[in-house]
Amino acid sequence: QIALKESGPTLVKPTQTLTLTCKLSGFSLGTTGEGVGWVRQPPGKALEWLALIYWNDDKRYSPSLKNRLTITGDTSKNQVVLTMTNLGPVDTATYFCVHSWKLVGYYFDYWGQGSLVSVSS
Amino acid sequence: AIQLTQSPSSLSASVGDRVTLTCRASQDIDTDLAWYQQKPGEGPKLLIYDASRLKSGAPSRFTGSGSGTDFTLTVSGLQPEDFATYYCQQFKSFPLTFGGGTKVQIK
User: Are the beta carbons of B100 and A46 separated by less than 8 Å?
Assistant: First the structure.
């Protein structure tokens, strides 16, 4: 049973760096085809894709945020970490960790429950 | 980036109704489209992938169709648990993009 669980701070100050961790269960990022990504959703707004990492360390980023994002995978801990620098109020959102199976397409068949991050001084 | 436009942004319907949601892409995406359902306070759930393939375990009253730039999600016989917001997502090319969503409300 595939499951993903996000963890991280609930409140971050402007200009600080956000680090979110996604713990994986039911699969390993070290397995061919497996991928994990991040999608965020500001309160009351639509979904926005942020980043993806695959088993072969292929990484993709949203062009609008590429300069601020880093996604890394740790197969020993079976987790994925997303860091976002220089946060501002517009980054207030629920951040979802998602599973992707590259061999069939870049869509997301499992989602975490989400981690709400507020950016405020 | 490929833009996805969903319509309507919201609709009101009754239990048992048949409803059709639309997603239009700004360029040809073949059938590289997924549909998700999101209920308040929850993460989205995949319903349809490859424009028309129903995810295992998803109710058969959900039907996806379309190719190229125009896609639809039809719910045949709305159930109380179907009142939610629905999003389409294209995976033809990066950056991956989502539509703005359609909220299905109870009439």
Answer: yes
